[in-house]
Amino acid sequence: MTMEATLTLNKKLLGSNLKFLRKSTKLKLIDFAYKMSSTESTIKYYERGNVNLDALVKYKKEFGIGLDELCFTDLKNKK
Predict the structure, then answer these.
(1) Is the dihedral angle over the CA atoms 72, 75, 76, 79 positive or is it negative?
(2) Cα(14)–Cα(26) distance, rounded to whole angstroms?
(3) What are phi and psi for residue 62, nearest 5 degrees?
(4) Per-residue pLDDT tens for 20-51?
(5) Spatial distance between the Cα atoms of 33 and 43, rounded to a whole number of angstroms
(6) 47 vs 9, which has greater pLDDT?
(7) Is the entire prediction scored with pTM above 0.70?
């Protein structure tokens, strides 16, 4: 017997968290994109929840946050 765990990623929550983290830096979008070795349009794409694992790892390292927290916790309303 095998057990499979399935997690559903809430793209809206993930995008919101990425935007929240970016805004917490107080950097302009273009400066944040440069810091993340990316482009403004790519950062905006990520902030709509369309992000790949490599990008998630960059955010994890930049902000010192776990992937589980990044993907499944509402950071704006975290107490």
Answers:
(1) positive
(2) 19
(3) -65, -40
(4) 999 999 999 999 999 999 999 999 999 999 99
(5) 6
(6) 47
(7) yes
Given this model, what pLDDT does residue 78 score? Answer: 82
What does the angle CA 56 – CA 52 – CA 43 come to, to the nearest 5 degrees? Answer: 75
Query: Which residue's structure tokens are 């935007």?
Result: 19
Sequence-distant (6+) residues with CB within 8 A of 50 are 11, 15
Structure tokens at 78: 């975290």
In which residue are the tokens 């765990």 written? Answer: 5
Matching residue, tokens 């490599």: 54
Find where tokens 């070795």 sit. Answer: 37
Residue pair 75/20 in contact by the 8 Å Cβ criterion: yes
